[in-house]
Specification:
Elements (H helix, E strand, L loop, with lengths): L2 H24 L2 H8 L5 H8 L3 H13 L4 E4 L5 E4 L2 H4 L17 H19 L11 H24 L4 H8 L2 E5 L5 H9 L4 E6 L2 H13 L5 E5 L15 E7 L8 H11 E12 L14 H16 L12 H11 L4 E6 L6 E7 L4
Parallel strand pairs: 3-4, 3-6, 4-5, 6-7
Antiparallel strand pairs: 1-2, 7-9, 8-9
Helix pairs in contact: 3-4, 6-12, 7-9
The chain binds S-adenosylmethionine.
Length: 360
């Protein structure tokens, strides 16, 4: 077999494995296997998971040939399956920021939502409405849970502005999360800093409803959610210089009008205010991303969702891989003069663009 033929074979096998692992993740099979923590038969897995034995048998065939699960024999000669702990550490709902299992769902989800629409886009150049992705917010909520529950309060916020932000949050400041989605980050922050006040902005009503419900369940009285188009913040004078700290987690690159949104952020900050834009770690040119460890995956997610969504409404269609050069240029164009681009130890996927408004 030539080298490229071997590579093609790997691609077909790995694509198939991604799909099967997404099904395993969704049905919590990895979580069940981790809890069982020993070699078990298919009927034991069926009993522990409540799933159909025949479907499980086929799935286990994929997992053992794909070297995700180990195969051995019981004393009675039955097949026994074992998920090694070093694999479980990246595949279960308790894996925290190491949870790569949750990402296996992304390509299958986007394919089921938008395969045909993306094919059409190649002919027409048109964007794809957000409504084409009904399960997307819920999926983003799962990602946010995996990312933020472990790292946001313990690692990220203490790192901002050499710890000075933490002191300000503890004393009480006004905070906004732009493109807050289902509000995982916002509610965590509101819970951790009861003397500060928190506003979540998003234009997806179903998502912010989830955030509101959770805030109520958590008994939070210092958080509110507003349905607002980020591109039109400028028109809402009530926001002008109202915030000391603004965050945007993974929420600028798929805006239709990101420059207007960033100008909105600039106008919302009070003197001395800080803006943390967390966005994908990449360069703007293809040539500089050749060694990106997740280049094909991230460009594909972008092609299937971020870019077409960003093309709506005569939008810019930046795409997820807009990269740091374009990001820095746009932040400057929006008015930010002081921009630091920081790596984050707890989140290798993203960069932290920390922007400060000193004087106005
Ligand atoms: C990729 S999600 C990120 C959600 C959340 N920050 C997180 O980390 O899970 C991007 C969010 O931006 C929101 N968004 C996109 N365009 C927007 C706009 N024009 N105005 C306000 N929100 C917008 C979407 O509804 C979505 O919730």
């Amino acid at each position: 077999m030539t080298e490229f033929a071997q590579r093609m074979t790997d691609i077909l096998n790995n694509g198939a494995l991604n799909l099967a692992m997404a099904i395993g993740y969704k049905n919590r099979i990895f979580d069940v296997l981790k809890d069982l923590n020993k070699p078990v038969t298919v009927s034991e897995i069926a009993a522990a998971s409540g799933l159909n034995e025949r479907y499980l048998g086929e799935w286990l065939g994929i997992m053992v040939t794909g070297k995700i699960i180990e195969l051995s024999r019981t004393a009675d000669g039955e097949d026994a399956y074992f998920l090694p702990s070093e694999h479980a550490a990246f595949l279960t709902r308790t894996s925290g920021s190491n949870n790569l299992g949750v990402y296996t769902q992304e390509i299958p989800l986007l394919t089921s939502c938008a395969m045909e629409a993306v094919n059409n886009g190649f002919q027409t150049g048109e964007g794809i409405p957000f409504s084409q992705y009904p399960d997307f917010q819920q999926f983003m909520g799962q990602l946010a849970n995996a990312k933020h529950r472990q790292g946001l309060i313990a690692d990220f916020l203490p790192s901002v502005d050499n710890g000075k932000l933490l002191a300000r949050l503890t004393e009480g400041v006004r905070v906004c999360d732009l493109g807050c989605g289902e509000g995982v980050a916002l509610n965590l922050m509101a819970d951790a800093f009861p003397k500060s006040s928190f506003v979540g902005i998003d234009n997806h009503e179903d998502a912010i409803r989830v955030g509101r419900f959770e805030a109520r369940d958590m008994g939070l009285s210092n958080v509110e959610y507003k349905n607002q188009n980020a591109a039109k913040i400028d028109e809402n004078k009530g926001f002008y210089q109202q915030f000391d700290y603004i965050t945007a987690f993974d929420a600028i690159h798929d805006q239709s009008h990101p420059l207007e949104a960033l100008k909105g952020v600039y106008s919302m900050l009070a003197p001395g205010g800080l803006f943390s834009m967390i966005d994908i770690k990449a360069y703007s040119n293809h040539a500089d991303n050749l060694d990106h460890p997740m280049g094909p995956f991230l460009y594909t997610v972008s092609m299937m969702h971020c870019m077409p969504v960003g093309l709506n409404d005569n939008g810019t269609g930046l795409g997820m891989m807009w990269g740091r050069e374009q990001a820095e240029d746009m932040l400057k164009e929006a008015g930010f003069e002081s921009i630091e681009v920081l790596e984050m130890e707890h989140d290798g996927f993203n960069l932290h663009y920390l922007c400060c408004v000193e004087n106005r």
